[in-house]
Each structure stands twice: as C-alpha cells, then as structure tokens.
Amino acid sequence: MRRLLARALSALQRTSARALCLVLGSVALSLVLAACVVGPPQTMPREPGDAQRVRAALSASFVARGQAGLDRLEQDLAQRLCSEAEAAGKPLSDDRVQAIERENQALIRWPAAGTPLLGDWRSGERIAQSGVGRQWSDAPDVPAGGNCYACHQLSPDEFSYGTLGPSLLRYAVLRAQMPRTELERYTYGRIYNPQAWLACSNMPRFGSHGILTQDQIRDLVALLLAPDSPINR
Amino acid sequence: MPDSRRPVWWAALGGLLALALGTASVVAQSAQETAREIERYREAVADSSPGELWEARGEDLWKMPRGPRNVSLERCDLGQGPGVVAGALARLPRWFADADRVMDLETRLLHCMVTLQGLDPAVLRRQPFGNGEQRSDFEALSAWIAAQSRGMTLAPPLDHPAERAAWRLGRELFFVRGGTHDFACTTCHAQSGRRIRLQELPNLSRPEEARRVLGTWPAYRVSQGEMRTLQWRMNDCFRQQRFPDLVFGSEVSVALVSYLLHNASGAALAAPGVRR
Questions:
Q1: What is the fold of A104-225?
Q2: Hey, is the C-beta of B171 within 8 angstroms of any chain A C-beta?
Q3: Hey, is B201 helix, strand or coil?
Q4: Do A54 and B207 touch (CB under 8 A)?
Q5: Minimum distance, in Å, between the CA of residue B35 and any CA atom of chain A
Q6: Which domain holds residue B131?
Q7: What is the ipTM of this complex?
Q8: How far does the CA of residue A222 sit from the closest CA of chain B (Å)?
Q9: How far out from the chain centre does Cα B135 lie?
Q10: pTM over 0.90, yes/no
Q11: d(CA B103, CA B124)
Q12: Are residues B106 and B44 part of one domain?
C-alpha cells in the first residue's frame, strides 16, 4: 500500500507542470460546458449587451421623489467600475484600483488648520445609532445619521449591531502602536471616504457624498479614538 | 396550535430561558433569540395568521364586479388560462403574449384591472402598498392567489427569450451600485451569515438561501401589521438604498423579481408567510 502511494507520488512528480495544467484546464472546460447544458440559470453567460440594457431599464423604472432625484442613478467612476467587476465576478485591475483610490483621495476635505480631529464622542454615539437620512421618505433638512451599528460592533453596551463590517470594539487600543496624529487623520479620512484606501469598499463615502458633515465625522472619530469613549474603555 | 404541542413548547421556552441566563455570550445569544422569537411567532400564528384577513378580502376582490366595465377578475389569465388561480404563483413571472412582456403576479393583476375592468392605471399605481386605513387591493389579491399555490413547487418558466432576458437583466441590476450611499443589492445579499443590526440577511445569489425566503412571499409583516408583496420588497430595498422611487410593475422591478424567483426555483411555496 505504502509502495503504491510512493510510486503514484513519484509519477506525479515526473509529470511536467505543463501537462498538469492541460489536464486541469480540460477538466475545468468540461465542467463549464456541462454546466451550460444542464445547469441552473445562474450559469447563463453574460452577453455584451446586458450592461447597456441596465442604463435604459433604470431610467425607465424610477421616478424622482422627495429628496431622491434621478441624478442618483448616475454612477461615478467607482460605482461604475465596482458594479462591473462584481457582475463579471473578476477583481479590478491594479490600474483601476489606483484610479479609484486616487480620485477619492482628492475628494477628502480636511477641517481648517488647528481644528482638532476629535469632536465629542457622546454626539458620535448618537450619530452611530441613527439610520435616518437621504431616503426619499426622510425630511431633507434633518441631519443624517451614520448608522454605524447597522454594520459594525462599536460600544460593548450595544448588543444590536450588524456584521457586514468588521468589529470596531477597542479600535484605538488595538492601534496604539500607530503614531497618534497619523491614526487621527487615517480615521477621519477613512470615514470621509473609505474608497480613498479601499476601492469598492461596501462602506458609504460619508463625507464626499454629503451624508455627514465634517463636524459629525469629527464626533465619530472621537467615538473611535477618545480614551474615555465606551469603545476603548 | 394543537394542544398536544403545548408541553413541548413550554419545555423549549424553559430551556431557552435557562440557556439565556447561563451564557456569557449575550451578544450572539440575543441575535439567536430574535430569530427564535420570530420562529416562535410563526408557529403560533401558523394555524390562524392575520394574513387570512387579506386572503378573504382578496377572494372578494377577485369575484366582485368592479370598475367602469363592472366585471370581476374571474376572466383574468394569470398564465394558466382565464380564471385559473390554482398553481398560478408557481409559474410566475412569465411572458404574456397579450402584453408582449414578462410580468410578475402584481404586474399581471394591474394589467387585468386595466384591460378587463377598465380601471385607471395611474390611479392604481398611486396606492400599490397598504398603509393602515389605506388598503391595497394588490396585497389582498396577491395573498389570496398565493394561498392557492400553497405546497406547490416554485418553477417559473425560462423558455421564452423575454423570460431569459428578464432574468439576465435582473442579474445585472443585482450588482448596480448607486445613490448617495453606493449601495447595491449585493451590499447586503451577496454574503452568507451576515446581519444588519440583529436582522439576518439571506445571500440571494445562493439557491438554498433564496429558496428559504422567497417561497414565503407575499408575507404578513409583523412589524408593520401589513401584507407585503415582492413589489413592495423591491421598492423598500431601493428606498433604503437611497435610490429614487421604484415604479410599481416597472421593468427593473419585474427583472429583479424574475432573477430572485428563478434563483429560488424548486422552493416549496408556503405563501403568504409570516416575517419580522
């Protein structure tokens, strides 16, 4: 038995990498072909016209309502490239990742020189809890919330948190080795425009898209970084 | 609920309480608790759901002569021939020759109300979703029609090119990011085992998960006290995505419903269901 295994292994080693690729390739190809013939509709291939049909269907299927105008259907570079890559099931090329991150870096607005990046963490907690804002059903003049708890764990006192984003419990404690000024700027920028660091992030670009004000984002930075914030206690 | 199940019920409740008190992992516990509470509610109302009120009104609306032409919907063809309601939901959305487009249940009902009864589509579109005293005929009719497919297997057709095109458009739309928040359907429904707050999110691109949820729509929403249809579900997801208002019965709404129901093909229909 052991000798049989050893012989099989050495036979495998003798096989050149190229031949192995050929075998694997043909197996994969036959799997794809089989899926096309008998598979569920998920395997229906994308066709070049599919993406174009989306634009026409969108503009024919929505109406402006409340504060939500039809301009919200217009995709910017990141929205267009990320949707396209995700529909194709392929990662973005390095060039496109850099183009998105460069464009979004340029959209970040910093508070006036001398303004501390940490605001009031108590106000930050209220912003993190609130999910109102920017829906057609919301009053346009009411300040929007960040709805951070929808996706993240933050304060240990709040059990009702989502898991679409990573836990931010002990955020500052876990980043104690990072120079403080750098950490403050990173945290502010990461909320203001996450795609400046991570193209196609699922997190909204709260500052660049006018969801939260600079002061609201400073309050959230305090919630994440202040030593007496419940997150770091 | 039958009496014989009651002791098991209380034992389970007692067990849960003991578990809840004894565990240190309160967070995971409370998420599971919410899911269990809803499951418990579902069981408790399984034999007499508030949804039955909508079903009863839906049956009346189907049989009642209405509109300028004073006719009932009993000649409405939901795909199985004029007036055939049994099994209709299991084979929708589908392409209809008389309209030359793919329609889901609510879109077809709208078509029948306009072409048979002579009702004004603009007026009908103004009240597609119920809101307390303002009731929706679509929600009542959908509930009754869905109940006539209970226990059947979901198998929407994909034979006509338009049905395949609707599915493919739905798949593209599923990935479209937009609005102020960059949200797409995939933001919440392309991963398994994630939550918003404590609400579990189904991964709707996976057939197993799609089958589990889509076989129960239309559904009675406990938190709203309303019967809700898939057209409502699409509209309200886009509202939360910060998109403009999705038009009832529009191409986008039908394409997404097609994509989701085909992904759920093979589901045992148990609609109207009960949801959070």
A1: Cytochrome Bc1 Complex; Chain D, domain 2 (1.10.760)
A2: yes
A3: strand
A4: no
A5: 13
A6: 49-275
A7: 0.85
A8: 22
A9: 17
A10: no
A11: 16
A12: no
